[in-house]
Task: structure prediction
Amino acid sequence: MNKPLLKRIVMVCIATLIMGFAVSLSVYAALGTDPCTCLNLGISHKVGMSFGTWQLIFNCTVLVFTFFFARHLIGFGTVVNMVAIGYLVDFYGGILAHVLPADPTVFLRLVCMLCGVVILAFTAALYMYPRLGVSPYDSIGFILTERTHIQLCWCRIACDVLAVLIGFLTGSIVGLGTVITAFCMGPLIKLFGDILQKRIPLQFD
Result:
């Protein structure tokens, strides 16, 4: 394996490990999570299944559609993300439950929420920058754009709104964290992505 590719794989793995922690912080804060997590938290609670197991089932289902409609979006990063993130959230959540108060103050919840958003944005940029595939949920927006020729931002907004609606209807918390994620994630990911390109140049040939 050549060194440039190995470097990209390592970046994806590191991003995934930290991303799980970021999501678990948002879940612990209980002030709302990103749309995909909101969706899967609600359904997993409704069906009585662990978040990790349900998210894997959800990702596998979406991956089937991605394979038929946009298989070029599938890569090493896709597989790592779909298999690991949910279980990492469960794992880190168990740790947080032991080291942080069961009934946190509003201040602590706000700190965890904001840290979760910023870390999630950074790890998302770190995950996407190596160009080794996107997560199954992220692929939905690209597929809709290719099929409808509607701008990606609008397709992504539509997906996120639907995900949040389903999450809300199945008992997931929709709050300040959800709003901040919806409006700040895009700019933050771009900011971190630009920094990564300057600090860690990669070869894609």
User: Anything to note?
Assistant: Helices lie at 3-29, 35-47, 51-70, 76-99, 106-128, 136-148, 152-169, 176-199. The CA atoms of residues 18 and 171 lie 26 Å apart. The first helix runs from residue 3 to 29. The chain has a mean pLDDT of 93.
